[in-house]
């Protein structure tokens, strides 16, 4: 497989711009999700086709979600061994979604997702105690894996925008996690879905490896800084960013429909 497909028109200055976008996106993504709101439009602006942008975005995002997961795990906010079922089913869901998106047009989701994200943003905005402390767990972790893990994983592989918000709301409302702990769990499953999608896209011929790896380095830097800030400031930082990112993703989707 050619590691440099269609890169002849991307010059060094553009690589630097996309690297900077990846740093910023990695920081935002580690705290509240929504980094794709920056990276996918930037990749399309650079001249990539929609499938090239999706595939390359999964590669660079994998570096960021891994870095954030490692940082949160090191601080004791998430233990991957406790979420084996969710990891497996999120992986299967994302792989199914990434395969499906190469067969059908996902544009119909652009009409539904903004409404859900706006509802979630209002929910966080007007529920100031939500996620401040851990609450009663509503379902078992295996049920969580089979429902939220698989379905949100599928959505991430198939479409993507707002995945972090969906995972956070699932961790908070279904497993009773605090916002910092929910954010850590979100990055663990986000990394899983990124890797699953990446494997499917790697064989599609749409992945620009060198560009994705370059942006991946930027993601590592941004995600390390963002996860550090989230650990230090907790829900006081995570909540407003979740609201802002959810509304921005909704606005973008509404404007492009």
From TrEMBL:
Top-rank taxon? Bacteria
Keywords linked to the UniProt accession: Cell membrane, Membrane, Transmembrane, Transmembrane helix, Transport
Q: For this UniProt entry, what is the primary localization, expressed as one broad class?
A: membrane
Q: Which InterPro entries does the record associate with it?
A: TM_pro_TauE-like, TSUP
- A family per Pfam: TauE
Q: What is its subcellular localisation? A: Cell membrane
GO CC aspect terms: plasma membrane
Give TM segment ranges: 15-48, 108-126, 147-175, 195-225, 237-255
Q: How does it sit in the membrane?
A: Multi-pass membrane protein
Q: Does the entry feature the keyword Ubl conjugation, yes or no?
A: no
Family of this protein = Belongs to the 4-toluene sulfonate uptake permease (TSUP) (TC 2.A.102) family.
Protein name (record): Probable membrane transporter protein
**Organism whose genome encodes this protein:** Thiothrix eikelboomii
